[in-house]
Design a protein that fits this description.
about 160 residues; Aspartate Aminotransferase, domain 1; 4-stranded antiparallel beta sheet
């Protein structure tokens, strides 16, 4: 074989090696950074909701990864923890009449259950609000959030 043929083989081998390495670097660094930026943006938008008197924003949380535990995909969950001493039906009424109209997605709205084990176990792994660890009663606490498509599936957290 000629030197030119060896060079072509070497270039082909380098390309074959470089492509998987490039994909891995993207999945380990660039993809997660892009998805985290979108998740943080959604959480910030939720933090800026105009809450009426009697409501208090406690904290926000977001997660990027596989929230369902099935198949290889990345999605985003973002939400806020709010508190209100108002009766639950009034809080829900605010949610239905006001909140849904101010968001460009259909939000999840749930009262925080007294027994955190009543959450589907996978949900407890990504819906984390540290404030709930320091209180004795969750009465009056609500989670408003949602699931969103990731910007890129080039993110190792979904596999």
């Amino acid at each position: 074989m000629s030197l030119k043929t060896y060079k072509r083989i070497l270039i082909a081998l380098l390309i074959i090696i470089a492509i998987p390495i490039s994909i891995f670097i993207c999945a380990a660094t660039i993809g997660p950074a892009i998805n985290n930026a979108k998740a943080k943006s959604i959480a910030n938008k939720l933090e800026q909701l105009a809450l009426p008197p009697g409501f208090e924003l406690i904290e926000s949380s977001f997660f990027c990864g596989n929230t369902t535990g099935t198949s290889n995909h990345v999605e985003i969950w973002a939400g806020v923890l709010i508190y209100s001493e108002l009766p639950e039906d009034e809080v829900h009424q605010f949610y239905e009449k006001e909140l849904i109209n101010h968001l460009d997605f259909d939000p999840l709205f749930v009262p925080v259950p007294e027994d955190s084990s009543s959450y589907y176990p996978k949900m407890r792994s990504f819906m984390s609000f540290t404030h709930l660890d320091d209180i004795s009663s969750v009465k009056g606490y609500y989670i408003i959030g949602g699931y969103f498509d990731a910007v890129t599936q080039c993110d190792l957290r979904g596999h």
